[in-house]
Amino acid sequence: MRCAAGIGTAPHDFLIWGYGMLDYLIRSGRIVDGTGNPWFRADVGIAGGRIAAIRHHLDLPAQHTIEAEGLTVCPGFIDMHAHSDWWLLTNPLHHPKLLQGVTTELLGQDGFSLAPWPAQEADMLRRLVAGMNGNPDLAPSWQSFAGYLEALNAAQPSVNALSLVGHGTLRVGVVGMANRPASAAELADMERLLRQSMEEGAAGLSSGLIYAPCYFAQREELVRLCRVVADYGGIFVVHLRSEGDRLLEALEEVLDIAAESGVSLHVSHFKVFGRPNWGKSALALERLERAREAGIDVTFDQYPYTAGSTSLSVLLPPWAHEGGAEALLARLQDPAAREQMRCDMEQDTSWDNFLAAVGPENIFITWVGSERNRWAVGKSLVAIAGSMHKPAAEAVMDLLWEEQLAVTMVDFCMSEEDVERIMRHPLQMVSTDGLLAGRPHPRAYGAYPRVLGYYVRERRLLPLQEAVRKMTSLPAQRLGLRDRGLVREGYWADLVIFDPAVVADLATYEDPCRHPAGITHVFVNGVLSAAGGEHLGQRAGRALKCHTLY
Q1: 404 and 446 assigned to the same domain
Q2: Domain boundary residue, one of 378, 412, 446
Q3: Residue ranges of the alpha helices (H) in 269-353?
Q4: Which residue segment(s) compose the domain that 388 sits in?
Q5: pLDDT band at 7, cuts 50/70/90?
Q6: In this predicted structure, what is the pLDDT of residue 168?
Q7: Which of 335, 430, 470, 486 lies in disulfide reach of 34, CB 3.0 to 4.6 Å?
Q8: Residue 454 belongs to a domain with what CATH number?
């Protein structure tokens, strides 16, 4: 491994790197280096995929020169919550993320990864994953985690990617969709698969505790699996069991698991869900601070919007998911089960009940799997129910049945005050949580420019250098990426150049597939991959193995 050098390195040290000429010279930019320090003016030289030199006046030959006067140069953005698992294999140019400055993504979220792919129950896993990650006509060529990373590399994506192991994926392959504790033998099998995946480069374990089958797991199972992750220095990334009425209790659950297992904890898309709970972010953040004081290593990510997005099937009560997709589809055709589901959706508050807490007028369909119901995309559940001439709960069940569960939604469930309080906290990292199919949530195209344009420039909620830290070095540190996330000599040249006076998200809920303004250049592994807001067709990304230096 080459050692990273500082700005004060003598000019002749460039020759030690063995490069006769720079590939790129970025001249006179304002360097926001990812540390959180104020910007400084310097030239940046790129050679062999890495940052070869940083000088106030870099007098070295280069094949290409980019004049960056008045522009900001910073590390590439690291998306701490991505749902591009299938997408990178089928759409490797990956315009939505690259053109907003994302150069690395963390996959395998909410308990569902594409590896280890189960030899049994593969159809069930496909259906479970479809609501968030899509369901392309692609037959996996792998079973192991290493095989999935090989498939990613073979696809030659435009951005880097690393992945968590999904707790739900493990459970589907070993236990199935039964609502019961794992047996001793089953738990040993899950530990073995997780350990093998960690050795093959997984970043850690994810669980979505509102989603079946993760929802069915008991505390002992989670502690045992997290101990495996802790042995490898990985992270436990978790969608809390509740982000609404029982938010504080849900935090206690995962903090307790982290304390007993010794794992580093990361809370996904930290939010406060449902109007009756708005304002709870202050108490939740105080609890996280006390946990860190007590020695629990906890962080979180957040997307910069007041609306969320997930699979429409989350509107159904948890018991409806027992037994898997086929059992759920059978219940959707059973009059007695439908009536119980309707009553629960309209009245029960013992779980994070989206329909009751958010209201059908605030839930919009973003994607359906077939042409049959394409008319529903972009419409609220109130409008859809009106067109069907039935109550909203009935419309939800019919839509899920007709689409075989392949439906996603946007739900307007948060307050701006909570969003801003969470964003200001030093433990916060930025993410997109971007579901990419159909008419997606605008976060898939605009999350990072929205922070830089709206929250930094317009709202002045954060200093620019702090926002960049939350997008770059903080997630790199969390993921153990020791040579990414900073503008530093010797680091991989994942870089973004943007105009701080212009950068802005242009994606809206009505027109979400619009690329941002003001991102002028994006480098991935030293390759100029986007310029002037256009993708250059380069596919320089790679699958990254955690705990490995490249």
Answers
A1: no
A2: 412
A3: 281-293, 325-331, 335-347
A4: 310-412
A5: very low
A6: 97
A7: 486
A8: 2.30.40.10
Tell me the per-residue pLDDT of 80-103, one tens digit each, with 9 for 90 and over: 999 999 999 999 999 999 999 999
- Does any domain span residue 297? no
126 token code pair: 């496909």
> For residues 323 and 121, what is the distance between their CA atoms, to the nearest angstrom?
12
Return phi, psi of residue 81, to 5°: -150, 95
The C-alpha angle with vertex 188 and arms to 184 and 191, in degrees rounded to 5, equals 140
pLDDT tens digits for range 25-46 = 999 999 999 999 999 999 999 9
Residues 6+ apart with CB under 8 A from 493: 24, 46, 49, 50, 51, 523, 525, 526
Rounded distance, CA 36 to CA 382, Å? 45
Distance between terminal CA atoms of the chain? Answer: 8
Measured between alpha carbons, how far is 239 from 264 in angstroms, rounded to an integer?
15
Look at residues 412, 444, 465 and tell me which one is the last residue of a structural domain: 412
Distance CA 272, CA 291 (A): 19
**How far is Cα 452 from Cα 498, in angstroms, rounded to an integer?**
10
Number of domains in the chain: 2
Q: What angle do CA 400, 433, 108 make, to 5 degrees?
A: 85
Cα torsion for 396, 170, 84, 132, to the nearest 10°? 0
549 and 444 within one domain: yes
Nearest CA-CA partner of 171 in 129, 106, 125: 125
Within-domain flag for 228: no
**Sign of CA pseudo-dihedral 309, 310, 311, 314:** negative
* Rounded Cα gap, residues 411 and 305, in angstroms: 11
Distance CA 90, CA 115 (A): 17
The string of DSSP codes covering 442-481 is THHHHHHHHIIIIIIIIS--S-HHHHHHHHTHHHHHHHT-
